[in-house]
Amino acid sequence: MKLAFSTLGVPGLPVPDVLALANAHGYHGVELRAHPEEPVHPGLSPAERAETAAQFKAAGIELLALAGYTRVAAPGDDAPVLDEIRRLLQLAHDLGAPFVRVFPGADPDRPREESDSLAARRLGAAAEDAAALGVRILLETHDSHRTGADVIRVLGPVGHRQVGALWDVMHTWLGGEQPADSYAALAPHLGYVQVKDIASAEESTPLPLGAGVLPLTECVDVLCRNGWDGWLCWEYEKRWHESAAPLPDLLDAGRDHLVRLLGEAA
Hints:
Number of strands: 8
Shape: globular
Number of helices: 9
Helix content: 40-55%
Order of helices and strands: EHEHEHEHEHEHHEHEH
Radius of gyration: 17 Å
Mean pLDDT: 98
Distance between the termini: 11 Å
Strand content: 15-25%
């Protein structure tokens, strides 16, 4: 498996500095948070897009994904949601990223079936755009659809290879789903896996990998036992927790922890 980290852990850091961190600490790729407060977002000009793509190529680091914030199950008209997805897809295409991340974001007061249908309709509509651009849309296990069982209710009806899943191991754990069950649900659709660690369900300040309660050993074990050889991406949520330790100081130990888990699982 290849290792990456998310720029959620280094808010606002310029792309060259992010790439230097990846190279210095032995990571193969980077997940870029695509948000207006970050250096990379859908508002970039063609020249800025070309420069960013060239920076990744020169550094020899892969751009794993653009982590967007579109909520595909949110109430409202389809048009703004689809426009947001398409702008993210175009940016990913221009930068050479194979994946874009979207959230569910359903209204908890709305019937579950309605939200699932809404998300599936929008993702199905965006799937052809994704196919034309050679980018895959990944629905993350998150918020209203925390588990693999939740996400598959949306992806099943979509039935398009350009729409898949992103497994955030914290959210499936918070949803009470065992890693083997998460993998079984998501495996046919799995793009990559986000790893992290926290102290408890009530305390989600990010911790160094292996220092918390999340079942990282079990997650890596089930992936290895099933021959999955994709990406593990460390999403360290420094942006939401200013008191958390700086991610650059933790990158070596985090890489070593994941390599050790992979070795033990093998």
